[in-house]
Amino acid sequence: MNNLSGKAIDFPTVAGRWFLGALFVYTGLEKGLDPVSFLKLVRQYDLVQSPFLLNSIAGTLPWFEVFCGALLLAGIAVRGTALTLAGMLIPFTAAVWHRAAVLQGAQAIPFCAVKFDCGCGTGEEFICRKLLENAGLILLALWLLAGRGRMLALRYSLSAGTEPSSSGGRSAATP
Amino acid sequence: MPRRTSTAAILLEAVLVMAAAAGFAFAANQLSPRGLKLARDYFPSTASATHLPPKVSPPADTLPASAHENSETAEIDQRIKGKGLQPIDRPETERLFHDPRYQQGLVVFVDARDQDHYTEGHIPGAYPLDRYQPEKDLAVALTPCLNAQQVVVYCTGGDCEDAEYTALLLRDAGVSNQNLFVYGGGFNEWSASHLPLDQGPREGAPPPAKNQ
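The joint structure predicted for all components is written out below.
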C-alpha cells in the first residue's frame, strides 16, 4: 500500500523528468540542425570575442542539451544531469534577462513588451513569459536534483550505495 | 557524513555527465553535414570593429512609416559602409538587373542565403554562395565575379549581415572592392516590390529580364 502511494506521489515527478528531457531534446535538435542560425543568435549576446569559443558554443551546446535531455528521458544519472541543467539554465536566464534589458533601453518600451529570439530553440517570445518558463524549468531541475523522479529510471545514479532513501517509487535498476 | 558523501557523488556524477555530453556534442558537430568549423572566423574582424549597438529607435507608432523605413535604410547603409563596402539601393539594383550587361555576365548577382532559401526563391540568374558552406559554391561563383564589372550581393535584408560577409569573402578571394555592391534591402524588399523571381537551382545564364 505504501509502495503504491509512493508511486502515485512519484509519478508526477517522473512526468516532469520526461517533460524536461523531451524539451531539451527538442530544443537541442531545433538548434543543432540549424547551427548557423543559432550562431547568429549567440553572437548577439556579445559574450565572447574569440571565434573559436563562439563557434564552440554555437556548434556544441545544442548537442550537449540533446545528450542531457536523453539522459533524463532514459533516467540515467538523473541528479547529476539535473545539476548540470540547472547550472546551465541559471546563467542562461541571467544572460537572456540582460539582453532583454539592453533591448528595452534601446527601444524605450516596457520590459515585458520586449520580444526577441533568445536562441532558446522556441523562436521569438515575450521576455516575461520566457523568464517565467525558465524559472519553471530551473525549479523542475532542482526538484529532480532533490532526489525525485526515480521511478522507471534505467540507472538513477551512476554510483551505487549513495542514494538517499526515497519517499517515492524505486529505480528499475535499484534493488 | 552520508549527506556529504551523497553531495560529492552528485557532483562527481554531474562532472561525468558534462564530460560525456561535451564529447558527444563535439563529435555530433564534427559529424553533422551542417556542423560549424570551429577554427573558422565567420565574422571577420573588419566587422567586429564596427559592431553596432542594438537599434536605438523610438517605438514604431511614434514615427510615420516612411520615416521608419528611411531610418532603417540609413542604419543598414551605415553598417555596410562600416565594413568598407558600398551599399546599393533597390532602384539601382533594379536598374542593374535590367542592364543589358547582365545578360553578358558583366553584371553578376550573388545570393548569400542558404541553399533552402535560394531554392524557394531568388533573383533570376543569381549565383548561390552560402558563406557558411562556401567550398562548393565559391568554386562556381568566383570566376563570374572576377570577370564582372559589377557584383551585387544580397541576403534576406534588414538585420541580415550575410551579404556583407559574403562580399568580404569575395573581396578576399580577389574581387575588386570597387566592383562589389551590397543590396541592403535584400531579398525581402525585392520580392515585396513584385520584381522577377526564380525558384529551384540556378540554371545557366540569367533569363531575359522582365517584370512579373
